[in-house]
Amino acid sequence: MRGRVGDAGRWPGRALACALVVAGLSGSASAQDPLSAIDWLRDNLSEPAHGAHPVTPLPGDAWLQSMITTRAIDAVRPESVGLFPAARAGLPRRFWGTTPDTELLVLIRGLPVDTLPALRDLSYRLLLAEFEAPHTPPTREDDATAQSTNADARANAFLAARIDKLMDFGAIDQAAAMLDTLDTDDPGLRQQRFEIALLLEQEQRACASVLDAARPFPFAPAVIFCKAREGDWQGAQEQLERATEAGTLGSVYAPLLDHFLDADDHLHNSAEELEAILPSRLSPLAWRLLEAIGAPVATHGLPVSFAHADLRGTIGWRAQLEAAERLVRSGALPPNQLLGLYTERSAAASGGIWERVRAVQRLDSALIDANAEAIGSALLLAWPHIVEGELEVAFAALFAQGLLEAGLSGEALEQAIIVGLLSADYEQVALDHPGTTARARFLSTIARGLPPAETLREDEALRDPHWAAVAEAFEDPAPVTDSARARIDAGRLGEEVLLTLISLGSASDPRMMTDGLALLRYVGLEDIARRTALQSLLLERRG
């Protein structure tokens, strides 16, 4: 597998990636933590809290060396567990403030997954950071034990909502790391970890927990599956019979487990029989059971978290490519891992994803050969395919630096600058290439966090309501609404940022774009605001 210019090497496989997450949590430094798939983790997170200011990303993975901390597992509470301290996220430790946990839980569940990459990265930041526990209003229980039980249940529910949302994004490596940090006995959280393990091909680890006699597992289908997997078919059958009599299996797992345990039966299943037991909504366990009885379900129509299963070496190359693209789009997989798959072998077909593979291979080879003319031609040919796959920001992370150092000119240079503005080095790109047209100067001004209103007046074509909304948000000071200021002053910062993420995720109304960007700038999330603005203007989509 060839490396591109300037690479220290491609990303390793998932087994090593998962090990690196755990190593980072235990305090050992690594320069290849899979969390660096999230661009903002490379940013300088020590900036002041308010107002526009330059944003200078840390080079490479230098952020990792300073973010690793060690703490005793027994000191971690479910509602505040995280993979890095709040300070490293550029946010106060009391981020959740006075907003009740039940209200925050609803907002977390409402975070949009189909959103701009910068907003997705901020969502990751909030879901993975270690904040103080959210406010839990007192309950009416007079008994202290009942109050404690209720508080524990709410704490576990808050963490479960964060884990569920990470799974919605496909970030199951990170979700697993959070749960492993806590090592909880809560039934719901243990079931979440079991399902994640199935998607990561960690059945042995998952079943070790399920069959732990000291900690009985509350989910009967998992126990039956694991007993059979460990070779205890009789015990699995007895467990199935007991669960069937008790009515605890449900309509989905009863037929699946019955087929799974009857080896002779599932060797002769007809297509009609298998179709009859397919559930309308697949859980990871149901998906694994269907695979085991000879009725595998393709992952491309399932939630993105299932795509991890298609990164197995036993899966065909096209399925691996499609899965990797899905995970890169959701921010759950490093772009370098996708590049490794793109350049693994020659495409044997044409159309669709194969044209994208050929285009990326052509550009990668041109960069290695340092041929400016070939690089420019390959870039212009590749870009439409990258846009079609909605991989522009990942492409920028991989190629922006090499393109801008390639000595391009004309249309190719203009395209390289656009790619650069979508990269983590957007500010330096803007300083090096301030632009000659009104549109280019507008983008350069936004990238530097300056008011672009004057540039907007230079070109009537830029008076589009969306461009005007972005320009208004970058006035100095940022035009924050009174209601937003009031919530922040009342200690409801986390609530306000979550509301902003939800509104910007579907910001078809220019007013919502202005208010959202202004709020991000006001609370010190300047980098996220600039990247969101640039992406909303440069990408073919706004959500």
Give the uncertain stretches in residue-range form: 1-75
Question: How much helical structure, as a percent, in the residues?
Answer: 55-70%
Q: Topology as H/E string?
A: HHEHHEHHHHHHHHHHHHHHHHHHHHHHHH
End-to-end distance? 34 Å
Fold and architecture overview:
The chain is mostly helical. The chain has a domain at 331-411. The chain has helices spanning 14-26, 62-67, 101-109, 117-128, 144-169, 172-182, 187-199, 203-210, 220-229, 233-246, 250-261, 263-267, 271-277, 284-292, 317-329, 335-342, 353-369, 372-388, 392-404, 410-421, 426-432, 438-447, 453-458, 465-473, 482-489, 493-504, 510-522, 526-538; strands spanning 84-85, 129-130. The protein is flat and about 75 Å long.
The gist of it:
With about 550 residues, the protein is mainly α. Helix content is about 60%, strand content about 0%.
Main attributes of the structure:
about 550 residues; mainly alpha; two-stranded parallel sheet; 28 helices; about 60% helix; disordered N terminus
Question: Which SSEs are present, and which pair or pack?
Answer:
Blueprint: H1 14-26, H2 62-67, E1 84-85, H3 101-109, H4 117-128, E2 129-130, H5 144-169, H6 172-182, H7 187-199, H8 203-210, H9 220-229, H10 233-246, H11 250-261, H12 263-267, H13 271-277, H14 284-292, H15 317-329, H16 335-342, H17 353-369, H18 372-388, H19 392-404, H20 410-421, H21 426-432, H22 438-447, H23 453-458, H24 465-473, H25 482-489, H26 493-504, H27 510-522, H28 526-538
Helix pairs in contact: 1-6, 3-5, 3-26, 4-28, 5-6, 5-7, 6-7, 7-8, 8-9, 9-10, 9-11, 10-11, 11-14, 15-16, 17-18, 18-20, 19-20, 21-22, 24-27, 25-26, 26-27, 27-28
